[in-house]
Amino acid sequence: MYDISTRKRALALVAQGRSLNSVSRETGISRAAIRSWQDRLEPLPRIAPPDPGPPADERAYAYLLGLYLGDGCISAHPRSGYYLRIACADAWPGLLQQCREAIVKVLPGVGVYTLQKQGCAMVTSYSQHWPRIFPQHGPGKKHERTITLVPWQQEIVDTHPWEFIRGLIHSDGCRITNWTTRLVDGESKRYEYPRYFFTNLSSDIIRLFTEALDRVGVEWRQANPRNISVARKASVALMDTHVGPKH
Fold it and tell me: Does the pTM exceed 0.70?
């Protein structure tokens, strides 16, 4: 969108007898745009897109919300509409496919494509509706602003907490195997035990994650302000049943 002063400046050059080609070359504005301003200087008012309503698949939405809060962003198209982008590491092709599937389940008919970057792929989708579907969208980094769920989102997360947890783990979490050694009858034996970690700079997103863990009965420990650990055997077993490692 060009502001009024830019439009007036281009039309003033045309009024001097300049051709549309020369004005376009000087200003970088297309001839079609300059020609349209000769008929109407003021830009047409933007019409708000219709409300898309609730997500078509709430279970898929809970998962996609976790991915978005962890590794997603929304950016405006220069003319209209918005791009949803979610980063998926190349090491987890299964995650990338699940992300694509969740997007089309949440907003049927929307296009989804993958933009390859170094070490990761950006799963990208264009729609006018993404800011309504993810009202956490806003200027700046997520950890530098308040992140809260609106009532209809909270209702979905309360109904599908495991899907939400799985999305957060798949974006900013991992399942790892720790090990230690102990002396048993004079011999050093190696013991391995799995655990889950979740890391995020936003205290609000950390809170949303731990509230969901509490809801499903998973015991957790906050190692530091950025990291949540799940190490108790019963809780790890629950996580393995409903989340599992990335693939």
Answer: yes
H helices within 16-75, ranges in order? 20-27, 31-39, 58-71
Token pair for 26: 């000087």
Identify the architecture of domain 171-242 in CATH.
Answer: Roll (3.10)
Task: Determine the CATH number of domain 58-145.
Answer: 3.10.28.10
Secondary structure of residue 188 in the 3-state scheme: strand
What is the CA 98 to chain-centroid distance, rounded? Answer: 14
d(CA 239, CA 215): 13
pLDDT digits (tens, 9 = 90+) for 116-172: 988 899 999 999 999 999 999 988 889 999 999 999 999 999 999 999 999 999 999
